[in-house]
Amino acid sequence: MPGSPRHLVIGASGQVGGALWKALSADSRLTVTGTYGSRETPGLYPLDMTDATRVEEAFSAWRPDVVWLPAAQADVDACQRDPDGSARINVTGPYTVMQAAAERRATLVFYSTDYVFDGEAGPYDETAPTHPLQHYGSQKTEAERLLLQYEKTVVIRPAWIYSREPGPRNFIWRLVHAARTHQPIRAAVDQISTPTPADALATMSIRAVDDGFRGILHLVGPERLSRYQLTENILRLAGLTNVTIEPVTLALLKLPAPRPLNGGLITQYSTYRITESLHDLPWDQFR
């Protein structure tokens, strides 16, 4: 449609990107283009955001007014095992995209993480100083610093994202699958955060950008739960009430990357508080 605002979603094959893609595409006033990195997805275009030439070609072809950037290496342990390779995706890639966006004066919306904090004194609002514990959090912190040098950047920090999406990227799907296949389930009682529904995250992100928001914004769900409580709630809502969950400390799981314990996020901006919670998902699809 001539003259319609042009939106580019880089990483539209992921949980957050998919929710953004769906929400934006539902608005007939917009022209929406989505990309994928390594996971080929119908309707999306391949784009390696670490390749400056490819990014420049894509921006020249699509001429976006708003660039949404949820694409990342979000596997915290994979980042810990391969800090250099993951930094190319989590730092070099976003910086390359920012340069292309800035050249065209496009709004840039970058998705970060609650893992920029150490979890000593959560929940954290937008003014709290960052102090990451692992490579993933450090990479996201550095990307935030670089991208915020461009005045039309919005940094959105969610936490513990979940969705209705089937497949192993979704924590709910993985947990329900594990329960139904009688795999042992262990969950940390001492790791606390604020689970965030992907659909509501996308909707509120779009609202903030439409309002002209700039800077850092925390968008999370209304509940603050331990990983154990989250696991209990998911299995109950999915109708799996006879499943044994072993309560453990995070240290006993011996994960490669440290995680914040007393974590989670809150926002100073009441206009953008998400009210949707786990209970609002269509649970029939998981039963």
Automatic annotation (TrEMBL):
InterPro entries: dTDP_dehydrorham_reduct, NAD(P)-bd_dom_sf, RmlD-like-bd. Keywords: NADP, Oxidoreductase. GO terms for biological process: dTDP-rhamnose biosynthetic process. Pathway: Carbohydrate biosynthesis; dTDP-L-rhamnose biosynthesis. Transmembrane segments: none annotated. It is an enzyme of class 1 (oxidoreductase). Its EC number is 1.1.1.133. The keyword Oxidoreductase applies. CDD domains: dTDP_HR_like_SDR_e. Pfam families: RmlD_sub_bind. GO terms for molecular function: dTDP-4-dehydrorhamnose reductase activity. Residues 8-268 form the RmlD-like substrate binding domain. The keyword Oxidoreductase applies. Belongs to the dTDP-4-dehydrorhamnose reductase family. Catalyzes the reduction of dTDP-6-deoxy-L-lyxo-4-hexulose to yield dTDP-L-rhamnose. This is dTDP-4-dehydrorhamnose reductase. It comes from Sulfobacillus acidophilus (strain ATCC 700253 / DSM 10332 / NAL). The lineage of its organism: Bacteria, Bacillati, Bacillota, Clostridia, Eubacteriales.
